[in-house]
Design brief:
five-stranded parallel sheet, TIM Barrel, 41% helix, alpha/beta
Length: 358
């Protein structure tokens, strides 16, 4: 009943079991082999990896209920993007990259960049087809859970991919207003992808944007409120109008912006259960309750996965108890379905017990 349980969590209903999601565990082949019994390694043929991955996430494995996925990434930029390199994370070090390149040499080049001029207008019907095909492919590969499509390079993540951290920070520091104008130009270009999702036959959308660092905002909070969140509202409008469920993901501590993002119309948040940067799901639940009282925001659900070495869980409206202790939660969503903000989170085994007893 993975789909039913995941769908219930996204719709603020209490399933009989705690739903689960993960992001990269199915690529850790020693773990996959241990769980599935399939002899798979980093050097196995692609068809063996696909078989093992399906078994791992399926009902006889870790039984994922929600499958995190996006389609639109930095590949949309072609050669006009920065390579910042990559440390080893994947099994066998297959993701290691020591190539550092950037097509931009001066901050003025960054500030003058016009994505629409460089990348042009996309064919709307083709974008709709791509999103529908991506969702269909995901659903065929993992038929037992809730699938989705989405955009990875939504705003700040797109600028990071284009310019790299060095040029991004330098340009933002040289002229914050001009950098804001650049952000608006980028948002106007990427809007066509969200317009296409609005017309696509897909039920759930992941909006990914790494808007913060581990310690919090990269730039002044008021800069985000002038240049980022107004564009989020534009992004989300065609998806909200067509009845999509919208989930939001960012690494780091974006607690300060929970209200802003919820006001844009997002239905759920993806974040760590007890991340090392101090962002706790219970605190966000509390923020959400206050937010509901102050602003009567859209209902929202937050997301999560887990440590690649252990089992994680999707935490929907509430995991084990209808009400958490003070400062850590809220009422059962069946009692207050109008604005509660439960979370699907990147949790370690037993994290729900830790939160409930904190």
């Amino acid at each position: 009943m993975s789909f039913e349980d995941g769908w219930a969590a996204i719709h603020l209903e209490m399933p009989k079991r705690v739903p689960r999601t993960e992001y990269s565990a199915a690529q850790h082949w020693e773990l996959v082999k241990e769980v599935t019994g399939i002899d798979v390694t980093v050097d196995s043929p692609d068809d063996v990896k696909a078989q093992a991955r399906r078994a791992f996430v399926g009902p006889k494995g870790w039984n994922y209920d929600v499958h995190w996925s996006t389609l639109i990434s930095s590949g949309e930029f072609g050669e006009m993007r920065t390579s910042m390199g990559h440390a080893v994370y994947a099994a066998g070090g297959t993701d290691y990259n020591d190539q550092i390149t950037c097509p931009f040499k001066e901050p003025e080049e960054v500030l003058a960049f016009d994505p629409m001029e460089v990348f042009g207008t996309k064919d709307h019907a083709e974008l709709v087809r791509r999103f529908e095909e991506h969702y269909k492919r995901n659903s065929e590969n993992t038929p037992d859970g809730v699938n989705m499509t989405g955009v990875y390079v939504t705003c700040i993540s797109g600028l990071i991919a284009l310019f790299g951290w060095d040029m991004l920070l330098l340009a933002a520091g040289v002229d914050p207003e001009a950098f804001g104008a650049l952000t608006n130009r980028y948002a106007a270009w990427v809007q066509q992808y969200f317009n296409a999702i609005g017309d696509a036959d897909v039920p759930v959308v992941m909006v990914h944007d790494d808007i913060v660092w581990t310690s919090g905002p990269i730039l002044r909070p008021d800069w985000y409120r002038e240049y980022v969140f107004p564009n989020y509202e534009k992004y989300l409008r065609p998806m909200l109008d067509s009845g999509k469920k919208i989930l939001f993901t960012s690494d780091g501590d974006y607690t300060e912006f929970i209200d802003d993002i919820a006001d844009c119309g997002v239905h759920g948040f993806v974040m760590g259960a007890h991340d090392r940067h101090g962002l706790h799901c219970g605190e966000v639940r509390q923020d959400a309750r206050l937010h509901r009282q102050r602003r009567h925001a859209h209902p929202a659900v937050g997301l999560a996965g887990g440590d690649p070495r252990r089992g994680g869980a999707v935490h929907g409206p509430r995991q084990a108890v209808p009400r958490l202790l003070h400062g850590r939660g809220q009422s059962h969503p069946r009692q207050h379905a109008g604005g509660e903000r439960p979370l699907l989170r990147r949790g370690l085994p037993g994290a729900e017990r830790a939160v409930a007893s904190a």
